[in-house]
Each structure stands twice: as structure tokens, then as C-alpha cells.
Specification:
This protein has 422 residues and is mainly beta. It has two domains: 21-229, Pectate Lyase C-like; 233-422. 9% of the residues lie in helices and 44% in strands. It is built from three helices and 40 strands. The strands form three sheets. It has a 25-stranded parallel β-sheet that branches. The chain has a 13-stranded parallel β-sheet with strand order 5-8-11-14-17-19-21-23-26-29-32-35-38. The longest helix is centred in the first third of the chain and has 13 residues, at 2-14. The radius of gyration is 24 Å and the shape is elongated.
């Protein structure tokens, strides 16, 4: 009965009626959705009305809504379009497929071209939600160095949520900083410079089912710029971040973990994927309690030095990869530096040292290294331990071809029970 009433309520809103006072239709506040009229003021008026009522749903029916300005979603207010599941609109790239103005609820954003500074297009506050819309920058260059824009979405306050949203081509996607318990779920698209930035999170943040693919443009100049400058997922200070089923294709860095003025990241990362990134994972720094990366799939084969994992000399925390797969063809699987600990357990390594230059899959120049129960599926150098490596345990691994582990460490190293064979 409750479900039937909910469906009936949504259907009523879709034709312009309001089943109850908490539902507001933007058309009733003057929004046109014709792709030509600036609908900023009409939307903000509807959002403010819902805020004054201490919460509600502001509904945007099917249409292409033009925005020359920006919006703030008040506390306890949901701004929603018609999509219940995140759509895809690669009709600009692939002829014959739907375009972003053909169906559904599309926001055409024009404010802020030429600079990353300025307010985000959409700012969320306490308990506010954005759901079921497409965000599209119609004036962005398709085959050239892209124009900078401010963030498409900023999450602030407590419990802001972004659900079933297509970020078709923003320069900067979601600024998930200075909030608590954010939820980003079912978000797809092609952010060009940055996808999601997480920082200053002191209570658990959640990111689920977020996939960034070049569905908008793979034109040579644009896509090469993205490969040289783009960063899909960036994590600085966040306490107990939970990330599930995320993916990116065609960036300079797929996942970057770094130290900001607020601190560093610790979290649980399950089902990560990065395909055709110059470096799939870059760790500048991590918390002592660690980054736990499980069931990841990482691919790198373009760029000046294709690498799956690079742990920088600034790393002093703990980073662990468990049951992950790495393939290329790349130059090396991992370059490990710093004074922290990096571990690989039950991982699979394929297609490194391309072209053959005698590079080991894992090259450690410092810190502590754990490699246990992994499989090296190429008859190539497996591990190189430099003089500054403090401690290392390399045990119980399967090696293709002869054992080729170089140990120059002046620290404590245990090499045992590694099985070589054809």
C-alpha cells in the first residue's frame, strides 16, 4: 500500500500536480526547461520554498534547464529529476544514441567558464539530496584543451547525498570536502580534470558505484589533455572512508591518496578499477592504520612511464593491496619509496617490463615491503629491493620462470618458500 502511494505521488508530480505540500514542481515557479531560458531564479525560488517549509522534494520534470547561475539546496530538501537509475548519454560521441537534451532531466550549466574559482553549480547542505539528473556543460570544448569551470557539485554539512546523477562532462565533478557522512552513489560520466575530491571528513564518508568513462568525448586533443592532467578520485583527510565498486578510464592518475593541511586518508576500498591511466594508484601519504584496497583491477599501458602503483618518498603510513590484479603492458607494477609499509597479498601480476628493459615488477627503494602469496605470471624480474629498504618479507609466491629477486637491502629481509617453474 505504501509503495503504491509513493508511485502514485511521483506520477502525479510528473504531470505537474502536487500530491502533498512537500512536493514542489519547478514549473510552478516559472522554470521553462526549453534549453534557452535561464531557469536559475525559478529553481532557487522553488528550493527556498521547500526550505522554508522545513523540507520537501523539488521536482524537475523532463526538460533541458539552462543555468547561467548557481544553486543551493537548503537543509532537508531533495532536488530530483525523472531518473531513478543513472542514465548514459554518449550520443555526442556516438552518432545515433540519445543526446543529453533528448530525454529526462538535464541541467545545462554555463556559469564560471575560464576559471576553477567561484561557487559550485550546486551546493548541498545538511540532509539535502540531489537525485536523478544529468549535469551537462554545453559550451565545453569537445576537441581542444578544455575550459576550466568551478566544481559542478559541492557537499557541505551533515549527510549530503548525490544519487543517480550523470556528470556528463564537468571540468571538476564533486567537491566532497567539509562535510560528514556524505553518500555518493550511482554516479557516472566524464569529469575532465577531477572526478571526486574528498578531504576534511571527520565522520564516515561513502562512495558507491561511481564510474568515470569517456562517454562524452574521445577526440584526440581533449582526451590527450585528460590523460595528461586528469585525476579521477582524490583522497586526503577522511576518517573511515568506505568506497565500493568504482572505476575510471583514461586519466593521468586513477586514485590518488595525499596529505592535505587537514591530514591523510584511512579507509576501506573494495572493487576499485582503473583502466588506461598513466598511473593507476598514486600514494603520496596514508594514515598509520592504513589504506585497505581489496579486489582491485588496475591497467596501465600509455604515458611516459606506465605504472600501476607509485608510492612516493613522502609515504610513512600503511598501504595494503589484497586479491588485486595488475596488467598492462606496463613498465612496472609498483614503485615503492618512503618509510612506510606497503603490502601485496594474493595478487596477480601480468605484462610488466614492456618493452623488456630488465625492470622488476615491484621496485622498492625504501620503507617496508610485504609480498606474500602472489603470482608473477611472466618470466621476468620479479622484485628488486634497494639499499634503503628497512624490512621485507617475500614469501610463498608463485614465480613463472626462474627466481629473479634482487636484494640490495641493508635492513632485515626474509625470502622464503617462493616456488619457481615453467
Amino acid at each position: 500500500m505504501v509503495q503504491a502511494l509513493a508511485v502514485a505521488g511521483l506520477a502525479a508530480c510528473a504531470v505537474g500536480a502536487q500530491p502533498e505540500a512537500s512536493w514542489i514542481n519547478v514549473r510552478d515557479h516559472g522554470a521553462r526547461g526549453d534549453g534557452q531560458t535561464d531557469d536559475t531564479a525559478a529553481f532557487q525560488q522553488a528550493l527556498d520554498a521547500a526550505g522554508k517549509a522545513r523540507g520537501g522534494v523539488v521536482f524537475a520534470p523532463r526538460g533541458a534547464y539552462l543555468f547561467a547561475g548557481h544553486l543551493t539546496i537548503p537543509p532537508a530538501v531533495t532536488l530530483r529529476g525523472v531518473w531513478e537509475s543513472v542514465p548514459a548519454h554518449n550520443g555526442i560521441r556516438d552518432a545515433g544514441l540519445p543526446r543529453p537534451t533528448d530525454d529526462g532531466t538535464t541541467f545545462l550549466v554555463t556559469e564560471g567558464a575560464g576559471s576553477e574559482e567561484g561557487p559550485p553549480f550546486l551546493a548541498l547542505t545538511h540532509n539535502s539530496t540531489l537525485k536523478g539528473v544529468v549535469i551537462y556543460y554545453p559550451r565545453q570544448k569537445v576537441d581542444d584543451v578544455p575550459d576550466a569551470y568551478p566544481w559542478a557539485i559541492a557537499l557541505r554539512g551533515k549527510n549530503p547525498a548525490v544519487l543517480a546523477v550523470e556528470l556528463l562532462n564537468p571540468y571538476n565533478g564533486i567537491d566532497a570536502t567539509r562535510n560528514e557522512r556524505h553518500l555518493i552513489r550511482d554516479v557516472h560520466g566524464q569529469p575532465l580534470r577531477r572526478g571526486i575530491l574528498v578531504d576534511q571528513i571527520y565522520d564516515i564518508g561513502r562512495i558507491e558505484n561511481v564510474h568515470f568513462n569517456p562517454w562524452w568525448s574521445m577526440k584526440p586533443k581533449l582526451f590527450q589533455w585528460q590523460m595528461e592532467h586528469g585525476e579521477a578520485f582524490l583522497f586526503a583527510r577522511t576518517d573511515w572512508q568506505y568506497v565500493l565498486n568504482t572505476f575510471c578510464f583514461g586519466y593521468n592518475v586513477g586514485y590518488r591518496f595525499y596529505k592535505s593541511a587537514a591530514g591523510v586518508c584511512n579507509g576501506n576500498f573494495l572493487g576499485l578499477g582503473a583502466d588506461d591511466c598513466y598511473t593507476a594508484v598514486v600514494v603520496d601519504e596514508a594514515a598509520p592504520m592504513g589504506l585497505l584496497i581489496t579486489n582491485g583491477e588496475f591497467v596501465s599501458f600509455h604515458g611516459p612511464d606506465p605504472t600501476m602503483v607509485e608510492v612516493k618518498s613522502t609515504h610513512s603510513g600503511s598501504t595494503r593491496f589484497v586479491n588485486c590484479a595488475f596488467w598492462g603492458p606496463c613498465r612496472q607494477i609498483a614503485k615503492v619509496a618512503g618509510t612506510g609499509t606497503v603490502g601485496f597479498s594474493d595478487c596477480t601480476f601480468v605484462q610488466w617490463d614492456h618493452p623488456r628493459a630488465g625492470r622488476a615488477a615491484i621496485q622498492a627503494s625504501g620503507g617496508s615491503l610485504l609480498v606474500r602469496g602472489c603470482e608473477f605470471r611472466e618470466a621476468k624480474p620479479q622484485i628488486e629491493l634497494g639499499e634503503a629498504v628497512q624490512r621485507a618479507i617475500v614469501t610463498d609466491n608463485l614465480l613463472r620462470g626462474p627466481e629473479r629477486i634482487v636484494n640490495r637491502s641493508k635492513g632485515t629481509v626474509r625470502l622464503a618458500d617462493n616456488v619457481a617453474g615453467p
